[in-house]
Amino acid sequence: MRAFVALFRKELRSYFGSPLVYLVAAAFLAYTGYYFHTDLVYFITFGFGLNIMENFWSILLIDVRLVLIFAIPLLTMRLLAEERRLGTLELLLTYPLGDRAVVAAKLGACLVVVGALLAATLVYPAVVFHVQPFPLQPLVAGYVGLILFSVVCASYGLFISSLTDSQVLAGFLTALPLLLLWLLSWNEAAASPDALPFVRAVSLFNHFQPFSIGVIEARDVFYFLYLTAVFVWATLRVLESRHWRGRR
Amino acid sequence: MISVEHLTKFYGATCAVDDVSFGVKRGEVAALLGPNGSGKSTLMRMLTGYFAPTSGRVLVDGVDVTERPAVARGRIGYLPEQVALYPELTVTRYLAFVAEVKGLVGRRRRDAVAGVIERCGLGDVAGRLTGKLSKGYRQRVGLAQALVGDPEVLVLDEPTVGLDPVQTVEMRALLRTLAGRTVLLSTHILSEASALCSRIVIMSRGHLLAEDTPDALAKRLGGVARITVRIDGPTAEVSAMLETLPGVLRVERAAGDEQPGERFAIFAHEPAPVQRALAGKVVERGWTLLEVRTETPSLEDLFVQLLAQNATPKAAHVG
Questions:
Q1: I need a labelling partner for B209 at 20 to 30 A (CA). Which of A242, B101, B107, B281 fits?
Q2: pLDDT in tens, B186-235
Q3: How far is A196 from chain B (nearest CA, A)?
Q4: Which residues make up the CATH 3.40.50.300 domain(s) of chain B?
Q5: ipTM higher than the 0.95 cut
Q6: Are the CB atoms for B136 and B148 separated by under 8 Å?
Q7: Is the CB of A12 inside 8 Å of chain B's CB atoms?
Q8: Which residue does chain A place closest to B80, by CA atoms?
Q9: Fold assignment, B2-220
């Protein structure tokens, strides 16, 4: 536990000691701020008086999630790829600290950064609430969805980062499939009727959409948690593979 | 303290370490010696629990490294061959991180960090980023992190590799201060092994070739001393006389040079009796003894000899 805390703190220090996090945060807030502005203008012009959750927050949350798809790979790409490239992973894994603690500390530190980014977006509802109060509970559900989504993306990014010692490759291979999974059911009419149920089942969009309108469904929560567990498990297996592959 | 039992490691079909067994006693400094690619690093990585052995086991103070990795790792300080540090951390911060990972907190952590900084002579660079250090300092930081927490066992993989001569001398001096701990260090430099260690384990191509003290190793391998003499006298007679000296195996006439007298090389297991008898015989015959020089075989020679004996091309080279 103590070793976990030490690594967790070191990871946070590495994050906030590098310019990348600040650049990602600036870009993230610029993009979400832009979406907040345009979505709000759209709502006021065309949907004013209608359900604010479905006609404004839902659209904004889906846009925020799109920005996360690009922001999270930038945060996860260095987690293990960097250690592999530097060779520090060998020492780290010979300290009295298990593979699980390494994975947990790295994922945890990344999620703290993502959490800080998401917390910063709370300024948008605060501004709107200040001007015109609205029911907050559905929005809370929306944020739960964003958090679960982020956890999946981060654990996937960590897994990809464990496979390569190139950060660029790790970032790329994290962002591309996430985007694909999101686009999968973008145009349902284009999917063949036979494939549609499958597409709906695996699409990140379909599982996130209920959250964005304020609905928390057990199967969606399960979908996100299940994916997270799979990626964490896979990352542990990759770390373990050094024993039989004989590489670092 | 360290007990390696029938350790074997395969990478796919390639055998990197083949049924190696040896032990290092408490407080002993042992060298793992072998050319590059002889399986030293692989063996050390199994010792530290980084790799699991294909078969066999490693006990550190009676604890199986594979079965109870956390306990065993807590007792080992490890310096890998490639010292990799986190470039964004300062030396102090990095060592504090290592101390914390090794379970030291608060005052004990501060004391441990201050202790290794002093011990390894890192005071001048304590506030520098590890990414900006010279190779010599990086290696010292690497040793410092292994020493954090006072582990009972130190496993050092090529601690002087890649250092310049001055840094190498400094590093060896530092390594000498470790006496009293159980140390296993690997090297491909014989003089280093014989200077620092009380026991040498020689490996080649994944096999254990020999294991003993440096002196015993030299004896066991039947080293032959070479005595070079320069004598002013009739060449044929001198040569014949030399062959009658006690314990002489062989006499060779060495290449001539500008100086007076003839040079001969005498080979014998024990140089002392030859030297004693030599002077008397020369004087008896009225010749002049101009030079006597004795060279005992270096471990280097023995090492090469051993490797040559083992040079069967059955096992592949793996690092």
A1: A242
A2: 988 777 888 888 888 988 888 888 888 877 776 666 667 788 888 888 88
A3: 43
A4: 2-220
A5: no
A6: no
A7: no
A8: A91
A9: Rossmann fold (3.40.50)
